[in-house]
Structure formats: structure tokens, C-alpha cells
Design a protein that fits this description.
The protein is α/β, with parallel strands linked by helices and 307 residues long. The chain folds into two domains: 42-123 and 240-302, Periplasmic binding protein-like II (D-Maltodextrin-Binding Protein, domain 2, 3-Layer(aba) Sandwich); 130-237, D-Maltodextrin-Binding Protein, domain 2. Helices cover 41% and strands 18% of the residues. The protein contains twelve helices and 13 strands. The chain has helices at residues 11-38, 52-58, 60-70, 82-90, 101-107, 159-171, 176-179, 189-197, 208-215, 252-263, 270-278, 293-302, and strands spanning 42-46, 74-77, 96-99, 116-119, 127-128, 130-135, 150-153, 182-185, 203-207, 230-235, 239-240, 243-246, 284-287. Strands 2-1-3-12-4-13 form a six-stranded mixed sheet, sandwiched between helices. Helix 3 packs across helix 10 (252-263).
Length: 307
């Protein structure tokens, strides 16, 4: 006797069910797209530590990562001047800001200080120093020897490469306009170091971790600085790392989305390391406004750098 098979659904019913499911999926997808399109874009203002184009380009991998993590559109805003940066925050034209610590202190009343993050150095530290370096054969042994010499500082927005070394020189009795032959504002630590190595300046201000990378490079390439070519003649006070802040009035959900994504960055993961290397970061940690009290006290004594 032949086996009986369970009758299959009528073909037309199967096609109808598949069509309904397709329409349902399309409706949900369209609803999600519409919702995402109606969600305001998140804007992050970054104070440039080098030129604005380089800063903007280096921040794009981070923007892509944050969009993937938050499922929100992001925009990187790089103001050209400190006044423009301040205006961007004061007018509410950016939800978040990433800035040098002394700039944070100037604008702290505009930020949600209960949700601060601090960047880590590539070595994972939340404090660092500025250092003043020179070629080993320059004849400059101490800060006092800078009289009559050419000095290269970092960007005027930089705490470690402008504010702190400027304060150090003044403490040692060096007046920048009277005692130095000349001083200029350079670009990145790597660029300043290379200019000093090539003799384009007598001394320069770097971040200590950038100097360490040069000094620890035991096998430099032809276009890299030999590890013993530069020496430190001065070290600034300890400086807090850069600060990531949410503007006052940004909703708690948006703050949590962005901050949690930043806190998840881990240099042990290759895909994260590539993002952070573009911005010379080692990750982020939670911070308190009290973490900046020491710098706040220094600024009250020496004042902010001239912009």
C-alpha cells in the first residue's frame, strides 16, 4: 500500500504568506529609516591640536565607530579659532566637545560636569608632562641657555606644548619676547621634533609620551629621528589629559550612548587601536571636575595663554 504524504499548503496560500511577510519587513525597515532620519544629528566639536584639516581627517575613523555604536548620525566640527570653538559651544551648535584641559576650564559652566571623560595617553596614563627638547649637540644644557635662541612651541590651543612650557620658561626667568631670539607655533609633536633635529629651531616643546616614542625607537627608519638625537632640558608640571564633555542640556540617553561607546575603546583590539592611533589616544576613562583643580590653581596664578 503506497505511503500517504501530508498534503502541502496550496501554492497560492504560501505565496500570499511570503508576500505579507515581505511587506511587514519592508514596513519595519522603512519605519526605522524614518525614525533615524528624524533623529537629530550628534555634533562633536574638536579643538585642533594641529591644523584643522588634519584634525578633521584624523577624527573620521572615530566618527564612523561612534555611528556604528550609537546608530545615530554624527558630524565632526573643527572650529578654526578658540573664539569660534567657544561660540560653537555657547550657541549650542555642538552636543559634545573634545578639548585641551585649560579650554575645558574656561567653558566648564557650559558643560554637564557630572558626565566628564578624560582621554588616556597612548601609554594609558591620564596625566602627562610637556618637555622642552634640543639636539644633543646644540650646546644648550638648561633652560637659561635658551636666551638668544629660536624656540618652537605647539599649537596655541595646546596645554602641554604652549601653556605649560611657556609657564616653565617664565618661572625660570625667560621672557619669550625679550629673551628668545624668536619663537613660533609648530604643528604636531612629531613635526616639532623633526624640525629641531633638522636644525630649523634650537629647542621645541613636545608631549613627554611623544619624546618617549622617539627615544625608545631602537630601529629608526631613514626618515625617522635617531633615538639619542634629542635630549630634554626642561619638564613642565603634570598636566591632565584632554577632556570629552557633553554640553549642558544634552539628554541623558544621548550622553550615555556616546560616552559608553568611547569607554569601550580598547587598544588591545586592532580595530580600536587603528581608530585611536589617528588621534594619539589610549582610550577614555570617567573623570571628575576635581581632577582639574591643580591646573585650575596654576591658571589662577599664571593666566591663560594668549590666543
Amino acid at each position: 500500500m503506497p505511503n500517504r504524504e501530508t498534503p502541502s499548503p496550496h501554492p497560492s496560500n504560501a505565496y500570499l504568506l511570503a508576500f505579507v511577510l515581505f511587506l511587514l519587513a519592508a514596513f519595519i525597515s522603512a519605519a526605522n529609516v524614518a525614525t533615524a532620519g528624524n533623529t537629530p544629528k550628534i555634533r562633536i566639536a574638536i579643538l585642533p591640536c594641529t591644523d584643522i584639516v588634519k584634525t578633521f581627517n584624523n577624527a573620521q575613523p572615530l566618527r564612523t565607530y561612534l555611528e556604528q555604536q550609537t546608530h545615530r548620525q554624527l558630524e565632526i566640527v573643527v572650529p578654526n579659532t578658540l573664539e569660534e570653538f567657544k561660540r560653537t559651544i555657547q550657541l549650542g551648535e555642538a552636543e559634545f566637545a573634545f578639548q585641551a584641559p585649560h579650554t575645558y576650564l574656561q567653558l566648564s559652566d557650559k558643560y554637564d560636569t557630572d558626565n566628564l571623560l578624560k582621554a588616556l595617553t597612548p601609554q594609558g596614563k591620564s596625566q602627562y608632562h610637556g618637555v622642552i627638547v634640543t639636539r644633543w649637540d646644540s650646546g644648550i644644557k638648561k633652560i637659561a641657555d635658551l636666551r638668544g635662541r629660536n624656540m618652537i612651541f605647539g599649537h596655541p590651543f595646546s596645554t602641554a606644548k604652549w601653556l605649560a612650557p611657556k609657564a616653565l620658561l617664565e618661572k625660570k626667568g625667560i621672557d619669550l619676547t625679550k629673551d628668545l631670539k624668536n619663537y613660533t607655533h609648530g604643528d604636531s609633536c612629531e613635526s616639532i621634533a623633526m624640525n629641531i633635529y633638522l636644525g630649523q629651531g634650537d629647542a621645541g616643546a613636545l608631549c613627554d609620551y611623544s619624546f618617549d616614542e622617539i627615544a625608545e625607537n631602537s630601529a629608526p627608519k631613514d626618515d625617522e629621528i635617531p633615538p639619542d638625537a634629542l635630549v630634554i632640558i626642561g619638564t613642565t608640571r603634570e598636566i591632565p589629559t584632554w577632556v570629552f564633555t557633553a554640553r549642558t542640556g544634552v539628554d541623558a540617553h544621548t550622553i550615555a550612548l556616546v560616552n559608553n561607546a568611547l569607554l569601550k575603546l580598547d587598544r588591545r583590539r586592532p580595530e580600536h587601536r587603528a581608530i585611536m592611533e589617528e588621534l594619539d589616544l589610549g582610550g577614555f576613562i570617567r573623570a571628575s571636575d576635581h581632577d582639574f583643580d591643580s591646573l585650575r590653581n596654576q591658571l589662577s596664578q599664571t593666566g591663560s595663554p594668549h590666543q
